[in-house]
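Predict the assembly for these two chains.
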Amino acid sequence: MINFDYIRTSTAKAAVDAKTKNASSQFIAGGTNLVDLMKKGVTSPEKIIDINGLPLKQITADAKGILIGALALNSEVAEHPIIKSKYPLLAAALNAGASAQLRNMATVGGNMMQRTRCSYFYDIAMPCNKREPGSGCGALQGQNRMHAVFGASSKCIAVHPSDMCVALAALDATVHITGPKGDRKMLFTDFHRLPGETPELDNNLQKGELITGIHIPANPFNKTHYLKIRDRASYAFALVSVAVALEVSGNTINNAKLAMGGVAHKPWRLTGVEKFLTGKPATKETFTAAAEIAMEGAATFGHNNFKVKMGKAAVAEALQQAAQKI
Amino acid sequence: MGNTCKPFRKTSLHYCRFRRCWSPDQQPQIEQSEIPIAMGQQTTNIPFQSPQKKVNLVYISPTMPNLDNNNSRRDFLKRSTAIAALTIASPVLAKAAENDEKIAALFEQMPLRLEVNGVAHSLSIEPRVTLLDLLREQLHLMGTKKGCDHGQCGACTVHVDGKRINSCLSLAVMNEGKKITTIEGLANGDKLHPMQEAFIKHDGFQCGYCTPGQIMSAVCCVKEGHANTPDEIREFMSGNICRCGAYPNIVDAIMEVAPILKNY
């Protein structure tokens, strides 16, 4: 690992100032992705700004929803009694991600900031437009089994690996941000980017900006499920994952929110499916039809052709599992 | 371009961030197309890219315009040690890049205080040293193992303030004031921890390399309340890989000791 300057900060302003002053600096919270990337030589910041001293660990709930500090640990959020009772979709998604050790290090803000990536991004001997803009995409013609089927571009077909973010996308969360120009809020679904012509940018944060928290509005969903399909039973990235939140009364779906992971450069919200499901009966036929809509427009690259069939099955299964919950 | 990192001094010096040695000042200019990629080579081909494309190796000096100028400790050291190196230690420095390396490392160290297995340590380390390397290389606690070094195998699992983490992905400097427990700190003198006893009883290992990590992880798995069923244990122990496949025995060991450990 190439050496770097290391500073600790205790206020958001000091952290933002330090980041703004040095273009080659990075915030560090848990470090589970950043340290790994630095070891591999994928990134080598001049300066590391430790933000763990910032007062951003609190989780506060009220009638309008819940505000999770950016530095709350993934494990703390997953075990939080209010998250477990009122936002079980988020708890389930968190527990589906990484390992117990990593969840004890990784923060909510850091989970969002982990790089959208694939094995070509990690291998510095290979071309990657995300790591080195203009160098080409190794995955397009290479091993692309894990890669995107929605929203990809000729520059990049990597997928965002987070599970937590899939749940947050479905739950209409809002990102709280501070920066050199003050505080602002952004819809969670607007936070991550599609690759387009600039795959080196994973999100829409501006220079020097820092995530301070995530707000999830209170919701009426009484049936939720997070389904993750992966190569092994635990501790692997999703091939496909689906977050489902339904409000069902009687047998009618009044309100539905769905998002998919493992299929795009960002958590992939299924607005078409949501519209289709609203007002429909919660039956197997409805779910099968919804699954067809979910995978409309999928574009595959060879090794990942299976994701279309798997995606359909996963959406139908996740809806079924959610509907069966009491 | 053509700047190389030479170990010898000329008139003025710059610190090479990539080779971590002093280099003659040739006012390098950084261009977008130039990528610092390797050490000790002037140019190299990047495989799988355009085969003809030569990439210049550049070194970054303190005069590089885009470096921050807020008088960081590192910049200060770069400037001050350049002078000090010439005036005080020039005979040593002239020897070889090796010595430059040592001296540079000395100046780049940061103070760190932490407690490991109940013993307070006051240390001086480079920011890039991971907690795992600190434990093994500087404190000589070899029980914590380096497996993948990328947070994927769990062999390096230790407790920081009672929580299990992968020490390979934690920068040691980020553990200021923290209490670390390694496998060496689990037993009470000669009396093994119940989890250690259970691993022995159930033969929860074969080669033993993953075992310290498995045991440290298992202790927390129970403490977190995730050791109620074999399925739950498998899920919450999934961050610890056993290449020998001792999983059934590991699960048996944890299942047996979990009720005892709750009150331990």
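DSSP finds eight helices and nine strands in chain B. Chain B has three domains: 13-107, 128-185, 194-261.
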